[in-house]
Recover the amino acids of this structure.
């Protein structure tokens, strides 16, 4: 009986001591916890919510012209999805990947400046960006995914990268392309027919 009471008393003492120590640390009595080092609310930093090693989770700002900070390396699949304010965006050299659907349904987006580190434009990256009229496709891009630019109705001109190897089905469907030159490096151009990469795009391939 005595041993049980002794054990219980030991547990109570340890709990009390731990609580007192944690309280003291939070108050700064030991200088162990500096509240000035706490991570600031990501929503207050220009609207960019960045986690880990430069992973842009979301953008909560309402700017019409956005220049991504150089700390960003990856743009997540929902970072700008359905943004109805964005008109132009500059993507710096630090960004090496744009995930699928990242800019889907950005209906006011007109201008996109990509960098030479991007190798893939994935599934529905710019799907239904109806106002898109100007986008540079650097020669570093080797793959353009399924429906990447589908329903970009204002897009009349695009220069395909000279190292492009693959264009997915419906990639440019329902665009308003006038002339299109396919690079010699192109190995596969999706399906044929109504789900082809240039179906109803208006493009005359050369």
């Amino acid at each position: 009986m005595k041993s049980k009471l002794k054990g219980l008393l030991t547990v109570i003492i340890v709990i009390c001591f731990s609580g007192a120590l944690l309280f003291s640390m939070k108050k700064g009595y030991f200088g162990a916890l500096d509240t000035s080092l706490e991570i600031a609310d990501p929503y207050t930093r220009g609207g960019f919510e960045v986690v880990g090693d430069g992973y842009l989770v979301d953008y909560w700002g309402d700017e019409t012209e956005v220049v991504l900070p150089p700390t960003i390396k990856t743009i997540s699949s929902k970072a700008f999805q359905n943004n109805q304010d964005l008109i132009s965006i500059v993507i710096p050299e630090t960004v090496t990947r744009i995930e699928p659907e990242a800019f889907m349904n950005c209906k006011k987006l007109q201008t996109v400046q990509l960098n030479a580190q991007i190798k893939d434009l994935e599934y529905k990256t710019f799907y239904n960006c109806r106002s898109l009229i100007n986008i540079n496709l650097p020669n570093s891009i080797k793959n353009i995914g399924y429906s990447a630019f589908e329903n970009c109705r204002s897009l009349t001109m695009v220069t395909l990268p000279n190292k492009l190897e693959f264009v997915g089905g419906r990639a440019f469907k329902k665009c308003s392309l006038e002339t299109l030159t396919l690079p010699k490096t192109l190995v596969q151009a999706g399906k044929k027919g109504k789900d082809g990469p240039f179906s109803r795009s208006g493009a005359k391939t050369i």
User: Anything to note?
Assistant: Residues 120 and 143 are 5 Å apart (CA to CA). The first strand starts at residue 48 and ends at 51. The chain has a mean pLDDT of 82.
